[in-house]
Amino acid sequence: MNDQAFFSALQNIFPKDRLLTQGVQMLAYESDALTSFQAKPAAVVMPESPEEVIETVRLCHRYAVPFVARGSGTSLSGGSLPIQDGIVIALNRLNRIKKLDPEQRIAVVEPGVVNLQISEAAAPYNLYYAPDPSSQSICTIGGNVAFNSGGAHCLKYGMTSNHILGLKVVLADGEVVEFGGESLEGVGVGPDLIGLFVGSEGLMGVALEITVRLLPKPELYRTVLAAYRDLETAGNAVAKVVASGLLPGAMEIMDRLAIKAALAAVDAGYPADAAGLLIVELEGEAEQVNTEFEEIMDVIEASGPYQIRVAQNAEERIKIWKGRKGAFSSVGRLSPDYIVQDGVVPRSRLGEALAEIDRLSAEHGIDVANVFHAGDGNLHPLILFNGREAGALERAEELAGKILRLCIRLGGSITGEHGVGMEKKEYMAEMFSEVDLDTMKAIRRQIDPLEISNRGKMFPGGEAPALKMTGMHPLEKQGVISRE
Fold first, then answer.
1. Could you tell me the CA-to-CA distances from 213 to 22, 165, 243 in Å, in that order?
2. pLDDT tens, 82-110?
3. CB of 396 within 8 A of CB of 34?
4. DSSP code for 307
5. CB within 8 A of 484, min separation 6: which ones?
6. Is the pLDDT confidence value at 482 over 50?
7. Do 247 and 296 meet the contact criterion of CB atoms below 8 Å apart?
8. Beta carbons within 10 angstroms of residue 430's beta carbon
9. Phi, psi at residue 339, to the nearest 5°?
10. Residue 464 has pLDDT above 70, yes or no
11. Which of 215, 417, 423, 476 is 20–30 Å from 106 (CA)?
């Protein structure tokens, strides 16, 4: 590419304070929440309008410069890592809620809007946005769309894809298109282009506007905390709840290490001696919830817990969820580094999967804290290690790989909501056939023939967009932060 011509054109779009090219300026963009990888982009641009995003993408296409769109950088699979010598399009300033229609129960938002802000804006109308990833107070809706994020309540309400009605997108070649609209009436007519784009991990372009579906706030919540002496029994309890025909809003499990971390970080009030905690929440109309609550209590009591607590008010409910929502960050109190995995197994095999993860943990001599969406079998084992020890990261990655292969072997998937990104792309060939992967690549190339949009992610092999770290975080290496 002609670097000088490209950067001159960039300077015509962005003023100096929104075009970052110096090393210190770009430090925060060299890694996302998967800090085991890093890469230095050629530049970071900060658009303040959709038109600036469109101009940037068209410029990248003209000069064949790879780019990655980034929101808050909370990706745990390396999906928002920069591409070496490519461009980062930072979307945080596109953070406007452009429309909120309580009668149609929709909101039209820009990609930089934080997930939780949609529910806060809808609250005066007794509405909310259902997908609730643990990072919902900081993650952006654009990233949620890219990775089809879920959350604790995805069991009942589904993933991001179930709540997107329309998208305005700039494709990787600079063409601006619209999928869907503001009504459910168009859903199911023709190819599901929204379903194709949601979860495509940025391989097709950048979402400029997102029309989301809003739901009425539940009239009543009933939240139950059950403690078990062993994790396998807690996992089997989930299968019993599912077999009963009841559909809770959420079912979550935490193991002994996760409980220890949560108790150290927040006053969650969990039983400190439990090997496994099961959180089950019913929500909806009061009459229905009260009827189902009696039934589900019978199921839980018969599943073998040694202690059951029921939240008596909103404060106790918030306290229970505070420990679960903060589990990932709390584990940092137990270990300086950890890998968050994101495999899925059939719910009927949860107990088996947890027992095998426990065995693998002992075999490798590496602690694993388990926190997961039990309702849909989405495991989040946190593999603890110290990145300053020689070979520690590699040993942790080896264990992570065995857990992913376990998920495949049990009939599950290598990802539930965090995406493939950089972290799991080499496992795609173990889950999909060569024909499957070739078909995926062919679809991508029809939309992005130059493969400039989030290049090097998701598919096995190919050009590596980032370098693996072998110790300290990039900011620590620069002396910006210290763990001392």
1. 41, 7, 30
2. 998 899 999 999 999 999 999 999 999 99
3. no
4. E
5. none
6. no
7. no
8. 14
9. -105, 130
10. no
11. 417
Please give the model's pTM, rounded to 2 decimal places. 0.90
- Mapping DSSP to helix (H, G, I), strand (E, B) and coil, where does residue 480 land? coil
DSSP string covering 256-294: HHHHHHHHHHS-----TT-SEEEEEEEEESHHHHHHHHH
Pairwise CA distance, residues 267 & 110, whole Å: 35
Tokens of 70: 């980034």
Identify the DSSP state of 384: E
Extract the tokens encoding 193: 């282009």
Provide the residue type at 107 as one letter.
Answer: A
Q: Looking at 45-49, 115-119, 198-202, 468-472, which range is the least confident one?
A: 468-472
Q: Note the pLDDT of residue 444.
A: 95
* Both tokens assigned to 217: 């706030």
- With CA atoms as reference, report the closest residue to 245 among 301, 164, 299: 299
CB neighbour list of residue 275: distance below 8 Å, 6 or more residues apart: 228, 229, 230, 231, 234, 255, 256
Exposure of 186 by Cβ count < 10 A (0-12 exposed, 13-18 middle, 19+ buried)?
middle
Structure tokens at 378: 């989405």
Q: How far is CA 18 from the centre of its chain?
A: 27
Q: What is the mean pLDDT of the chain?
A: 90
Helix (H/G/I), strand (E/B), else coil: 101: strand
Asked if pLDDT for residue 472 goes beyond 50, the answer is no
What confidence score (pLDDT) does residue 479 get? 42
Q: How would DSSP label each residue in 151-213?
A: -TTHHHH--GGGGEEEEEEEETTS-EEEEE-S-GGGTTSSS-HHHHHTTSTTSSEEEEEEEEE
